[in-house]
Design a protein that fits this description.
The chain is an alpha+beta fold. It has a domain at about 85-240: Nuclear Transport Factor 2, Chain: A (Roll). Helices cover about 40% and strands about 25% of the residues. The protein has helices spanning about 1-25, 60-65, 75-80, 90-100, 105-125, 130-135, 135-150; strands spanning about 155-175, 180-195, 200-205, 210-220, 230-240. Strands 1, 2, 3, 4 and 5 form a five-stranded antiparallel sheet that branches. It is extended.
Length: about 240
């Protein structure tokens, strides 16, 4: 009986080994390089294991730029509508663009016009928070002092833009990493100052005044902050 049992045991063992080998050949074996199982509940694709080929989007490396350079802009066209080629202003703009490739003079002027109106209105309203974000520390201190003196006297200012007729860059330069642009604004403004009793002490609520302001904006081109701040002001106003 023992011999018979041993024979059957050997037969079953051989059959088990055969079945295991067949399953292994059909299902395969884990090698450590399998892709992770797909999860239908996540929107992200499964992470590829290290070592597999990944198709990446092309980057514009220096070699690629050299092979496919951007079309050069003619000097006479680069600052068209902003500065004439060969002028000191154009030279200053060139210097700024050389260290700040994203610089766009027309885009700057659009922003400068918006900042000009915001600053004038914020000063009239005594909006220190807005001024702090748009002015350099020195200019902000000057505006703050003027607002404080006005408040002590109980005076109020009402200011309203009729139009900004022109905004042009009159100077451009790069001092180290500090870019400076001077803009001449020509606008029409209604402005009136009243004392604490409400009496008009300066300007007129019904009269439009032609105003010319020359403001200088600056930006550290090495900073990640793209914003320009007002660093100097000059003003000349004549009745219209």
């Amino acid at each position: 009986m023992r011999d018979v049992f041993d024979i059957y045991t050997i037969i079953f063992l051989a059959l088990a080994v055969f079945i295991f080998l067949r399953l292994r050949s059909v299902l395969g074996q884990r090698t450590g390089r399998e892709r992770p199982p797909y999860d239908p509940y996540t929107s992200a694709p499964p992470v590829r294991p290290a070592g597999e080929n990944v198709v990446a989007l092309p980057n514009r490396t220096p070699d690629a730029v050299a092979q496919n350079p951007a079309e050069p802009v003619e000097p006479t066209e680069r600052w068209k509508g902003v500065a004439e080629a060969g002028t000191p202003i154009a030279g200053g703009l060139d210097a700024i663009a050389a260290v700040a490739p994203d610089f766009d003079a027309k885009h700057f002027l659009t922003g400068a016009r918006a900042a000009y109106e915001m600053i004038v209105n914020a000063f009239a309203e005594g909006d220190r928070r807005t001024l702090k974000n748009l002015l350099s520390r020195e200019v902000c201190d000057g505006f703050e002092a003027a607002i404080s003196e006005r408040e002590k006297r109980g005076e109020t200012v009402e200011s309203r833009f009729v139009s900004i007729d022109n905004a042009e860059i009159t100077a451009a330069e790069l001092r180290g990493r500090n870019a400076q642009l001077t803009v001449r604004f020509q606008s029409k403004l209604v402005s009136v100052t009243r004392d604490k009793a409400g009496n008009v002490i300066d300007g007129s609520a019904d009269k439009v005044t032609d105003v010319t302001d020359v403001w200088t904006f600056a930006r550290d081109v090495s900073s990640r902050d793209p914003n320009w701040k007002l660093v100097a002001t000059e003003a000349e106003a004549t009745a219209g």
